[in-house]
Amino acid sequence: MAVMVTGGAGYIGSHMVWKLLDQGEEVVVVDRLSTGFDWAVPAEAELVVGDVADQVLIEATMKRKKVDAVIHFAGSIIVPESVSDPLGYYLNNTAKSRDLIESAVRSGVKNFIFSSTAAVYGSPERIPVAENEAAAPESPYGTSKLMTELMLRDAAAAHDLDYTILRYFNVSGADPKMRTGQSTKGATHLIKVASEAATGKRDYMEVYGTDYPTPDGTCVRDYIHVSDLANAHYLALKRLRDGGKSITANCGYGQGYSVHEVIDAVKRVVGHDFEVRTRERRPGDAVAIVANADLAKSEFQWKPEYDNLETIVSHAIQWEEMLKKRNT
Ligand code: UDP
């Protein structure tokens, strides 16, 4: 019996693979290595290089490895890129997920865990936002993920399939044992970018918009440590295997930080200043979004271990130093 991890050579996926291996699970990774790295996949996991929409490959792999659960991370994740290339996002995140879900149904894989996003909420009226808040994505990225959520719901109603949809807030940090981290080239996510500026990989960083209706004018996000997120998936997997019913749950800490607050934390942790420039707003950005994570805690007995901004930032910086040493 094995768990199929799509996008397992990527940032969050590779943390998931380590978590599963640590728990003694057999893992098969499917990744086309468009943004992921083969070196990010531990030798103990099998890496199948291919596309999640290649149904011949996927169904043969599901059968060969006796896959009982899919954890589907593969997809595109950059909000402004989705604004300029919506059809690319609907292909990668929506159409290809449809094909993967169909392969799971045809292969009798009962358990499906899907990486969704807080972006499905847009800029919610109530913060922290709970799962029953109306979805109102403000970018094609959020819409592409919401469409997959709906497909999964309908497929589960029609077939022998149970799902857990996890809506991630802002995932950051790195494996505390430094076995993996965020290695994406040209990364755009705030803590990654700030860690690159802090470690000299870039000369300066930019803040996109300081005129938002927030206390310091910059957007507010709920930053969650990637290892806590991987653990939430593992608990969700156990719950599904134990017969838990399909569910959609937020994954965040319920604590919001502004862009300025994050940058200040990075400067404090690294112990020196770096240049920060102010720019105009970035398209597609929601003003403020913070999770109500009660459901994940009650349903999965999820207990965050690293819910501290400085801990997250210090792991992100340590990983940046590792990459520098390796020259990647
Ligand atoms: N951001 C920024 N500078 C950067 C990267 C991000 O000011 O170099 C801001 C971005 O505009 C947003 C917040 O940081 O308000 C979080 O953005 P990120 O891309 O990390 O995640 P998102 O919330 O878009 O998924």
Describe what you observe in this structure.
It comes from Mesorhizobium zhangyense. Residues 3-252 form the NAD-dependent epimerase/dehydratase domain. With 328 residues, the protein is of the alpha/beta class. The protein has two domains: 2-172 and 222-251, 3-Layer(aba) Sandwich (Rossmann fold), CATH 3.40.50.720; 190-221 and 254-326, UDP-galactose 4-epimerase, domain 1. The chain is built from ten helices and 14 strands. It has helices at 11-22, 55-64, 79-84, 86-107, 140-158, 190-198, 226-241, 259-270, 294-300, 309-326, and strands spanning 2-6, 27-31, 46-49, 67-72, 111-117, 162-168, 170-172, 204-208, 220-221, 223-225, 247-251, 257-258, 275-279, 288-289. The strands form four sheets. The protein has a seven-stranded parallel beta sheet, sandwiched between helices. Strand 1, helix 1 (11-22) and strand 2 form a beta-alpha-beta unit. The radius of gyration is 19 Å and the shape is globular. The model has no long low-confidence stretch (mean pLDDT 97). Residues 79, 170, 188-190, 193, 205-208, 219, 221, 259, 282, 285 line the site of uridine-5'-diphosphate.
